[in-house]
Amino acid sequence: MRPRAKYQVICMNRRRYSISAMCRFFGISRSGYYDYVNRLGQRAHDADLADIIREQQEKCDRTYRYRRMWEWLKRAKKIYRNPETILRIMKKYERLSEIRRCRKWRQMGQQLHKYENLLNRAFQADKPPRKWVTDISYIHTGQGVLCLTVIRDLFDNSIVAYKTGTNQTVNLVLDTIRLALQREKKVAAQLHLHSDQGSQYTSQAYFDLTKEYGITSSMSSRGNCYDNAMAENFFSILKTKCAFTDIRLPPLRKPMY
Length: 257
Description:
By secondary structure, the chain is α/β, with parallel strands linked by helices. It folds into three domains: 1-42; 44-99; 131-246, Nucleotidyltransferase, domain 5. It has helices at 3-12, 19-26, 30-40, 47-59, 66-77, 83-92, 170-183, 204-212, 229-241, and strands spanning 131-141, 144-153, 158-165, 192-195, 216-219. The chain has a five-stranded mixed β-sheet with strand order 3-2-1-4-5, sandwiched between helices. Helix 8 links the parallel strand 4 (192-195) and strand 5 (216-219). Helix 1 packs across helix 3 (30-40). It is elongated. Residues 243-247 have low confidence and may be disordered.
């Protein structure tokens, strides 16, 4: 528990318990507590700036990280502060971005097939289509949660195909692969399709489809998002830049051959 939270608990219970006893219990000094009490009636010198940050975070669904907030304050409000100051205020008033949080790996469903990491973080391709990466993610919109799956070509980092749905099903993944193959009329025999270890990509249906089209599957190591960084990066940018109430996906790449 942070010292500020401890001071708040003591202040709320000061009529029920001894302040000295509560300070000993929380391991804080009485002088620190009384200093907090004396500051309660005073508006902090950075409170006005915190209010501006709060209003902007509410408008953008808390997607601004501190550097982007710093840029916005300079451009839109003509407020010039050190970026570290903006970070401190956002932490103090709990206005940090709510995106790009680290996710714990967890297994969903039975894993029937696993594949070697053939991509091995070599995120460049000398020609299309040699290396594709794919992933599936949730997108929060004004109308509810949208499931989006994409396939990205590492030759030019363009989106070859994408599909949306209401659930993260294996059929959504398979339909995206079929769409990509329909659009790309000529697919190289050496095509590698890289994914994470999601249950959709370890399923029998995924195995059967990739074998049918002669696609070589590649897979990230367990719980390592860096192995599929180019797909993760696309979703990260999309969730940061887009207004979720009016989401706009990038146009599909025109077939290059």
